[in-house]
Amino acid sequence: MRFLSLLVLFAFVPAVRAADKQNTPNVVVIVIDDLGQRDLGCYGSGFYKTPNIDRMAKLGLRFTDAYAACPVCSPTRAAILTGRYPQRMNITDWLPGRPDSANQRLKQPEIRNELPLAEVTIAEALKARGYATAHIGKWHLGGDGFDPTKQGFDLNIGGDHTGTPRSYFAPFENKQGKMPGLAQAEAGEYLTDRLTTEAEKFITANKGKPFFLYLAHYGVHTPLKAKDDIIAKYNVKPQHGKQSNPVYAAMVESMDDSVGRVLKKLDELKLAENTLVIFTSDNGGLATLEGMPFAPTINAPLRDGKGYLYDGGIRVPLIVKWPGKVKPGTTDQVASSIDISPTIIEACGGEGPEDSRLDGVSLMSVDQGATLKARSHFWHYPHYSNQGGKPGGAIRKGDYKLIEFYEDGRRELFNVKNDISESKNLSVEKPDIVKELAADLNAWRKEVGAKMTTPNPDYKPNPQAKDGSIKLAASSALVSGVMLRFEPLPHKNTLGFWVNKDDFATFEFTVETPGTFAVEVLQGCGAKSGGADVELAAGDEKLTFTVKDTGGFQNFEARNVGTLKFEKAGRYTLTVKAKTKPGVAVMDLRQIVLTPTK
User: Fold this and answer.
1) Which fold has domain 390-454?
2) What is the pLDDT of residues 135-161, one digit of tens each?
3) N or C: where does the chain have the smaller number of CB atoms within 10 Å of the terminal CB?
4) Integer Cα distance of 167 and 177 in angstroms
5) Contacts from 384-387 at CB under 8 Å and sequence distance 24+?
6) Smallest Cα–Cα separation from 199: which of 356, 30, 330, 436?
7) Domain 2-11+34-96+111-372 shares a fold with domain 470-596
8) Is there a catalytic annotation at residue 525?
9) 341: how many CB neighbours lie within 10 A of its CB?
């Protein structure tokens, strides 16, 4: 079956000849880990220094509306290498994924922990044409028996089952083992630099024949580690809500240096004109804390980041450079990770668009100034992400994007052309579009065999702490209505955008020791927007408080607002509703704490 797939993939490709350079261009794919689209100067960053990538964007084609196949890494990498939606392979989370826990409403489906050997990668397709192939960097698609050398790569340096480097500085090892192929690195050498040196060596060694280089950097993934001299160049104090992290900036700069070195090597060896270079990322930038004092980056004006189905989590950089073949410029045509493989296949003389196995399409016509046939793009992420994202699916069709949340079936609709920040939910205004896109998304899930979530039989929401208190964090709420939403970025971490009075939030929690509880709300409210009356209700228990103007919606103040009594142990639902809204918004709500009274 595997052999037949390779035959189909290149059924119309002539045999490789030494003089047939037109059909055998070199191919370099550079994938950066966790790099946000807005982390590059050519995509609007004024803080990070990326002159080499910016120059590549001027010489090549820059996509403004390119998407990763998933808001986390492994599924996107599978999509890049195969041209297929990762749901077909049952790879829908980073590998091996996070286990279920009692605070999850839903049980996650089991996933495959490796890229199936039956899948045909770019490397296998090009190797069948006589290409030398190399994987350098992060693999994260399986370990022994499923490593890059089992998927068409002649050379593997640095790639194994892990998703983070064993060390960013040589020796590249930890208690769990060594990174393959890097034992000869000099002590203290930076990983991004070492992988680049290995890439240069591979290009030089294969300059006389066609080659495929897949350079998948571990940077800029956490843990944030960079060279001291570069960190010192960014003499700023990090601030929440701004691109201002000096260590992350230094990692970005080293990544940019790497791209510059690879492009320079191609120029030096006079290979640039016959080399297709593609630069992208595996998901949006990490914009939440994950145990750090400051988030690595922020993706504004895109919403949220890695682990979320909003565009901050899935919109990525995509730059394609091939002198004389790719028309330089910028395009807003929508592209995806699944398009990289068919693009390469067509560029190398194959008939990628003819292969029904592929979900993606070749972008070669876009590279030459044409318009792609209209199509939809789909996402299915039935998992709870490390960043706080919840299970859901999404579809972009034309300018509209629908997100469906699996916990409660809530749907949000955005016009991402006019509203790049996904701030105005149009679901009530345009119910026909919601219905159409939801049906398309459901049909696609069935077509690709997407595995769904199921109710969690062990669900135990917000249990009492040892001291008897119950903390209801904003992140644990379900929101109802149109505009109210949880905002996960560290300078917010709140239920916000409460601009519609009739929107409301519910919290589920578990009482183990009944009694009377003092209720403390951590609320913020902008100047002249205070005064809203808000009701807290759980069963027959209710209390009302008036929102205080705190001088800013993220200027939070803890307030004791009354008591609620729970006479029996069990699971309860607390509903938070506004009775009045005299200002532009009700409030921002970061948490509610129930504390037993004595």
Assistant:
1) Arylsulfatase, C-terminal domain (3.30.1120)
2) 999 999 999 999 999 999 999 999 999
3) N
4) 11
5) 384/98, 384/101, 384/104, 384/108, 385/71, 385/72, 385/98, 385/306, 385/307, 385/308, 386/98, 386/290, 386/307, 387/286, 387/287, 387/288, 387/290, 387/305, 387/306, 387/307, 387/308, 387/488
6) 30
7) no
8) no
9) 27
Measured CA to CA, the distance from residue 545 to residue 564 in angstroms comes to 13
For residue 16, pLDDT beyond 90: no
With 0-12 / 13-18 / 19 or more C-beta atoms within 10 angstroms meaning exposed / middle / buried, residue 333 is middle
User: In the beta sheet, which residues pair with residue 329?
Assistant: 61
Structurally, what CATH architecture does the domain formed by 2-11+34-96+111-372 represent?
3-Layer(aba) Sandwich (3.40)
Identity of the amino acid at 108: Q
Out of 42, 73, 348, 525, which one is annotated catalytic? 73
Per-residue confidence (pLDDT) for residue 598, from 0 to 100: 76
Q: Which of 135, 140, 221, 377 is catalytic?
A: 140
Write down the CATH number for the domain with range 470-596: 2.60.120.260
Q: Write out the two tokens for 598.
A: 């004595």
CA–CA distance, 35 with 280 (Å, rounded to integer): 8
Cβ contact 52:255 at 8 Å: no
Beta bridge partners of 102: none
User: How many Å apart are CA 204 and CA 266, to the nearest integer?
Assistant: 9
The ranges assigned to domains in the chain are 2-11+34-96+111-372, 390-454, 470-596
pTM for the full predicted model: 0.95
